[in-house]
Design goal:
Layout: E1 13-18, E2 30-36, E3 39-46, H1 54-60, H2 63-70, H3 78-93, H4 99-128, H5 131-152, E4 161-162, E5 165-166, H6 174-197, H7 200-206, H8 214-220, H9 224-229, H10 236-239, H11 265-288, E6 309-316, E7 321-328, E8 336-340, H12 342-354, H13 362-368, H14 373-376
Antiparallel strand pairs: 1-2, 2-3, 4-5, 6-7, 7-8
Helix pairs in contact: 1-2, 2-3, 3-4, 4-5, 4-11, 4-13, 5-6, 6-11
Length: 378
């Protein structure tokens, strides 16, 4: 009787359907996984569970109302949808934006970037099972939402930007409050590092796990922190400056392979942590000298008409390159509004990213990609 153990066990492929609503998923989506034991051999991604017809809604309403609709492109960081639409329309209309309004836009954008990265860290904490850090992060994110409320009267859907500027000037005490929050988060960074970066359990779940190569980044069109974590130094704020970013002194963090492999889950986490620090430096530079003057171009009136033509603008959102293409026929409503969102490229890369990984690493990998399904299912 032969009692020798076989070198490997023969297994049949099994199929798992996860979603559209599941605790391991960062948002409503469906994954069809082919498993060889505990290893993922293939993956099919299905989205569309949140489709709201946002672009068509913009085309059915006035130009001014389109700004409010663009708020809902990414509910976590609403300001980026507003900003990219305004930049495209201003380019088409040759409408200049006062320097003070540009500074207010950048302040809101960098606050939203910090808020977006804190939300990303919350999802990472949930994926690795760390409940404690979630309360720390949400506590600090609430401070930023308080700033939004102080300036705009809203915490999520701001509807604050206008073609040619912003709808109101900064309120009393706003600048001082922003500086206080920046100093608070700077102190909190030590807590984030202790509970995340140098935490043994977190390192075991993220270090050298599922690195994304430069080749895959370029092939899938990934941008933002995910691309920079793999060593590709591309930031719209530096490459194609807008709203006065060319006058600011800041660096673009790039993955360094601190855990031994460039572009792994740990690098994608560290990039966001470093970007929070850079955003706070940008805010301090702006708040030291906020330009005086108008906060809205006086050419923008209630009967403002966008001339016929088309234009394309892009900004660096917290997730990557966000583009907007607008077409006008000279009428009161947009003829066409199209958004290029960074999450779409991240979703396209998922089948190649997860192929060959263990099933228990799937929630961490998906969280590290920072998927905003709302902007994909627009």
């Amino acid at each position: 009787m032969n009692l020798t153990q076989p070198e490997s066990l023969k297994t049949d492929l099994t199929t798992w359907i996860i979603g559209p609503y599941h605790g391991s998923l960062p948002a409503p989506m469906r994954l069809s996984l082919s498993l060889d034991g505990e290893m993922i051999s293939d993956c099919h991604v299905e989205t569309g569970f949140l489709h709201r017809g946002l672009e068509k809604s913009c085309e059915l309403h006035s130009w001014k109302a389109a700004v409010a609709y663009s708020d809902h492109l990414d509910p976590e960081c609403a300001i980026f949808g507003e900003l990219v639409l305004c930049l495209a329309v201003e380019q088409l209309s040759e409408l200049e934006v006062p320097e003070r309004a540009q500074s207010i836009r950048v302040i809101l954008s960098e606050l939203a970037r910090i808020s977006g990265h804190l939300s990303f860290m919350v999802r990472m904490a949930k994926a690795v099972g760390s409940e404690t850090i979630i309360h720390y992060l949400l506590r600090d994110r609430e401070r930023i939402l308080d700033l939004f409320e102080l300036l705009t009267g809203a915490r999520f859907s701001l509807n604050f930007l206008r073609f040619g500027g912003v709808s109101a000037d900064v309120t009393d005490g706003f600048i001082e409050r922003v500086l206080e929050v920046c100093e608070l988060i700077r102190i909190r960074m030590k807590e984030y590092n202790d509970l995340f970066t140098f935490n043994f359990g977190f390192l075991k779940r993220t270090a050298q796990v599922v690195p994304i190569s430069k080749r895959l980044v370029l092939a899938s069109g990934m941008t933002g922190p995910n691309a920079r974590a793999s060593g590709i130094e591309l930031d719209v704020r530096k490459k194609f400056p807008y709203s006065g970013y060319s006058k600011l002194d800041f660096s673009v963090p790039v993955g360094r392979g601190d855990s031994g492999i460039l572009g792994d889950v740990h690098d994608r986490f560290l990039i966001r942590l470093r970007e929070i620090t850079e955003s706070m430096e940008i805010l301090k530079q702006l708040l030291d000298v906020v330009p005086s003057g108008e906060y809205l171009n006086r050419k923008f009136k209630r009967d403002f008409v966008v001339p016929a033509g088309e234009a394309y603008a892009r900004v660096e959102s917290s997730r990557g390159l966000l583009g907007c293409h607008v077409v006008s026929d000279g009428g009161p409503t947009p003829s066409r509004v199209q958004f290029r969102t960074p999450t779409v490229a991240n979703l396209m890369a998922i089948p190649q990213v997860v192929r060959g990984i263990r099933i228990e690493d799937l929630p961490v990998v998906l969280a590290s990609l920072d998927l905003g399904i709302a902007e994909a299912d627009r």
